[in-house]
Design a protein that fits this description.
Layout lengths: L1 H9 L2 H18 L4 H8 L3 H26 L4 H19 L5 H28 L6 H29 L2 H22 L11 H5 L5 H21 L2 H7 L5 H28 L1 H21 L5 H27 L6 H30 L3 H23 L12 H9 L1
Length: 408
């Protein structure tokens, strides 16, 4: 018992919260890596298989805020565990789905609970730290999100090729079960949250600055996924890489993403407005470098992939904190709105990127991404100059506080 207690003290519950985020994002995006196997297994077209990704995002966009609102008054720890076991059950059944339409229906179940887990995960993570450490808590939780978004595809692809179609889904099952058990054991009982009425939560929809922030987040994700959705094709056709090299580059992209995510957590804690402006500008820079670099010289491409991964993934935490800072009275509902609109951004960006490819070739995705970056910057600048909210005030951090943060 003494040994178990010491283990419990050394493992931070935020690890399991992040593991759950990795699990759900691997469910959402990992299926892209096994689409060829799904097409062959169920004898369907590529466009039909694509519904597994598109429908998932649309369900989140349509139902996310309402699911979060509906479950906002329940015990957070219980809801987190329930969501994870629902994700695990859905993945397990998906491994043995008898036909494509059953698989598609099973995908809709985690899509409904995805925004619920996402919203409560960050509120819970922040509650584990002192108020001044909130952005660092979010950054640590976001490691799971970024890992799922950028490594979910190569991991499931590898498992499917090395083992089987079923093994790819069973991997997601095990990850979510482990996260659920970890939260059950390691997460302390959450204090009884203040019961915020549905009317008060819905009241944040009257805030004009919130809607400007929503616009910025949607456009940034449209910019991100205009290019990232076609990253493999871009690296193959423009950079001249083979499939194995592309997989390695996407892993490097993921490593850069984790580093960028943690750095962004610190920067946004120092000055939210400057960080919000800097991220889309840095993303545009990475796109210009991609556009100008056509040779397969390995070192420059590795550096570009690290930069691209860092600024792409940092968009997650920056847009989330930028948006939710405008509605501190209803953090779960605001985060539900966030997850819905960024998924709408994913859908819009992927569609726009495809349209630009039709007219301009694969490099057209860069111009699609730059268009949405301009729109996102316009929203951010309008917000900064027209509204004086606490979300844009500079937070000065002493050297001592920075040293304390570095120890976390």
């Amino acid at each position: 018992m003494v040994q178990f207690s010491s283990v419990k003290r050394t493992i931070n519950p935020i690890f399991f919260i992040a593991l759950g985020l990795f699990g759900v994002y691997t469910i959402e995006f990992g299926v892209v890596g096994i689409l060829p196997a799904i097409i062959e297994r169920y004898s369907i077209s590529t466009s039909q298989a694509g519904m597994l990704v598109g429908a998932f995002a649309i369900v989140i966009a349509l139902f996310g805020p309402f699911m979060v609102l509906l479950l906002s008054k329940l015990n957070r720890k219980n809801v987190l565990m329930t969501c994870l076991f629902i994700f695990a059950g859905s993945s397990f059944l998906s491994a043995f789905a008898p036909n494509f339409y059953v698989l598609l229906a099973l995908r809709m179940i985690p899509a409904l609970f995805h925004p619920v887990y996402f919203s409560l995960a960050f509120v819970t993570a922040i509650s584990l730290y002192a108020k001044e450490k909130a952005t660092q808590a979010s950054a640590k939780a976001f490691v799971g999100t970024s890992m799922g978004m950028v490594l979910g595809i190569p991991i499931t692809t590898y498992i499917q090729h090395q083992f089987s179609f079923e093994a790819a889904f069973l991997f997601c099952t095990l990850v979510n079960i482990a996260a659920g058990i970890g939260i059950a054991i390691m997460l302390p009982k959450t204090p009884k949250a203040e019961k915020v009425t549905y009317g008060k939560q819905l009241g944040i929809l009257r805030k004009i600055p919130l809607w400007i922030n929503i616009g910025a987040a949607t456009f940034i994700f449209a910019a991100m996924f205009s290019v990232y959705s076609y990253s493999a094709e871009y690296l193959e056709q423009v950079m001249g890489m083979n499939g194995e090299t592309v997989s390695v580059m996407l892993v490097i992209f993921g490593v850069g993403g984790v580093a960028g995510n943690l750095l962004a957590g610190r920067l946004i804690g120092i000055n939210m407005a400057r960080t919000a402006v800097f991220q889309p500008i840095a993303l545009a820079l990475s796109y210009f470098l991609l556009y100008l670099r056509e040779s397969s010289s390995i070192v420059p491409i590795i550096l570009i992939m690290v930069l691209w991964g860092a600024v792409h993934t940092s968009g997650l935490i920056i847009t989330q904190i930028w948006l939710t800072s405008e509605a501190p009275e209803a953090p779960e509902f605001a985060t539900g709105l966030y997850i819905s609109f960024i998924n709408l951004g994913v859908f819009i960006g992927s569609a726009a990127g495809g349209m630009f490819i039709n007219f301009l070739g694969v490099k057209g995705t860069i111009w699609s991404g730059l268009l949405f970056i301009v729109l996102a910057l316009a929203c951010i600048i309008i917000k900064i100059f027209l509204f004086n909210s606490k979300g844009i005030k500079e937070k000065r951090v002493s050297k001592r506080e920075r040293r304390e943060e570095a120890l976390l």
